């Protein structure tokens, strides 16, 4: 099954106050939405509110948006989760991840539900009707790495550094990052990267397939713009159907994938034939 747009009943996009409280900026120009992680005073570290607001953005994107670009403000993508979330008092205005367990006000089922809510901020980036790009400068640590892994394409500046820090903190990566990491680099390399919590630089990321492109720091913005322009030249219906096929491929047998390709192509040919008939 591929990740389809989620039906939530939410219709209004996040306002400036919600975005600011979440440490995010959002601009939408035609078919392109740009999301910037903007907590420079915390090295763009993210909180639960960041991820629930990301989910809100995904739920309310205008229908004509085809491309989503995620970047960090300044010279860092994200230092990962704000460690204040693991203190009993938590981050101001937000729940502590462990506070409820220490004082008995929450149980494991409640925490499971909360993490599932946070994961929604990452899952929508796989939607077949969107192409998502992480534009990575500097460090993308832990949750920052997982956010980049949630995107279809990662364009890196040559100063970019990935690190899956969670195991070194006594935790596991739980923001949907383990599957794409294994899909890209294989289980053995993923194990080594996670369990050593080492830094993976831009050149190694390119060698491992984690980076679609590595460019100089001053070239990052232009390279992302070039990628966006190239993606927009492809018919939207064909792009959506193709991404949907690619998302199915690993879980399908060859026979199942052949059938999926046939079904998708029949739909595309039918659509093109109807368009030609309407123009006749």
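Q: What amino acid sequence fits the structure above?
A:
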């Amino acid at each position: 099954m591929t990740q389809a747009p989620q039906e939530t009943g939410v219709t209004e996009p996040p306002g400036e106050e919600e975005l600011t409280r979440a440490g995010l900026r959002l601009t939408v120009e035609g078919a392109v939405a740009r999301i910037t992680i903007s907590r420079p005073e915390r090295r763009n570290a993210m909180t639960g509110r960041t991820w629930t607001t990301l989910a809100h953005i995904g739920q309310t994107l205008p229908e004509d948006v085809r491309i989503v670009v995620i970047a960090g403000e300044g010279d860092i993508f994200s230092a990962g989760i704000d460690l204040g979330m693991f203190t009993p008092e938590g981050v101001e205005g937000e729940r502590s991840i462990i506070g409820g367990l220490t004082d008995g006000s929450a149980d494991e089922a409640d925490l499971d539900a909360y993490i599932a809510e946070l994961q929604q901020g990452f899952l929508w980036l796989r939607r077949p009707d969107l192409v998502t790009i992480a534009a990575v400068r500097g460090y993308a640590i832990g949750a920052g790495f997982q956010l980049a892994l949630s995107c279809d394409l990662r364009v890196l500046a040559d100063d970019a550094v990935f690190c899956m820090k969670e195991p070194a903190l006594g935790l596991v990566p739980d923001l949907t990052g383990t599957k794409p990491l294994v899909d890209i680099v294989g289980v053995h390399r993923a194990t080594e990267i996670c369990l050593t919590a080492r830094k993976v630089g831009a050149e190694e990321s390119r060698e491992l397939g984690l980076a679609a492109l590595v460019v100089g720091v001053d070239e990052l913005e232009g390279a992302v713009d070039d990628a966006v322009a190239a993606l927009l030249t492809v018919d939207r219906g064909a792009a959506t159907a193709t991404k949907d096929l690619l998302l199915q491929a690993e879980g399908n047998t060859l026979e199942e994938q052949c059938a999926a390709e046939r079904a998708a192509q029949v739909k595309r040919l039918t659509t093109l034939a109807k368009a030609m008939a309407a123009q006749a």
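Q: And what stands out in the fold?
A: The mean pLDDT is 94.
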